[in-house]
Amino acid sequence: MQNFKLTPEQVAGYHKDGYAIVRGFIGAEEIRKLQDIAFTDGTMRKHAFDLNDQTGKKTKLTLWYAPGNDAYGLLTKSNRMVDAANELMEGESAVCHFHSKLMQKEPKVGGAWEWHQDYGYWYKNEFLFPDQMISVMIAITDAYKENGCLQVIKGSHKMGRIEHGFSGEQVGASEHYVQLVLKTKELVYVELKAGDALFFHPNLLHRSESNLSDKPRWSLISVYNRSENVPYNEPSESSTKPLTAVPDEALLEWEALDISEGANFLEKENDQALK
Ligand SMILES: O=C(O)CCC(=O)C(=O)O
């Protein structure tokens, strides 16, 4: 999608509901390239680690901080991603990349994610302004109810941050507050086709169920932050380093480099800053 611009309805929907879906954000040829790399790249696999959900089911992910000139880095730095994040985040200062994760929910085994707000994690990193952050999920494969697509509670970002405790190896939101908000707010299954994008607010409550289907459910989640939103308890430096955006065509037209160790991958033993 060249010269992409969010519609006024998408912008208004994001602020009202806490999320906006953009269908066909990434083209079919681009998705084929990203799938190819996701399924075969040795560096991506080498740095993947398992995270146990409450029942001990494992969900695999690879997380890195520094987007390079590989296909995933070029996507994360593309004008369409950076401009859309810039339009939706509060504040004026430069757009930076906190981290990206390739979420790998394998058929039959891919574990669940408990109800949480991403800011339930990032608050612990001492980012002070959640409105100056955003997550962008790109469906690398189709995501639907049966393979554990994301579920969100529409409008729950307006509650502000709620209490979180541990849930398996994850951080989970207070079940009491989740049940209260579900009395009045709608639970939405965010079904996406490969190439669709979901922009969501750090305080939007979301979860996903395990993948009991025979199809994988893979997605990229890139997180952006404003340079002024300094985290006081976060060892990585990417979140305050202004991004230099690249043209949207770069993903297909530039000679993408291999994914390199320079991407600064998170290893599981250092996962105190998991998200
Ligand atoms: O990919 C998923 O199913 C959920 C991931 C998630 O909730 C997160 O990374 O915050």
Structure report:
There is one protein chain. By secondary structure, the chain is an alpha+beta fold. The chain has one domain: q2cbj1_9rhob like domain (Jelly Rolls), CATH 2.60.120. Helices cover 22% and strands 25% of the residues. The chain contains eight helices and 13 strands. The strands form three sheets. A seven-stranded antiparallel sheet has the order 1-11-6-13-4-3-2. The longest helix is centred in the N-terminal third of the chain and has 13 residues. The model has no long low-confidence stretch (mean pLDDT 92). The site of 2-oxoglutaric acid (AKG) has 9 residues, from strand 12 and strand 13.
Strand order of the largest sheet: 1-11-6-13-4-3-2
Report the CATH topology name: Jelly Rolls
CATH superfamily, by name, is q2cbj1_9rhob like domain
Q: Based on CA inertia axes, which overall geometry fits?
A: globular
The low-pLDDT segments are none
* CA(first)-CA(last) distance: 28 Å
What's the number of helices? 8
The total count of strands amounts to 13
The structural class is: alpha+beta
Given this structure, which CATH class is correct? Mainly Beta
| Main sheet overview | 7 strands, antiparallel
Return the string of H and E elements.
HEHHEEHHEEHEEEEHEEEEH
Question: What is the helical fraction, as a range of percent?
Answer: 10-25%
The radius of gyration is 17 Å
* Multimeric organization: single chain
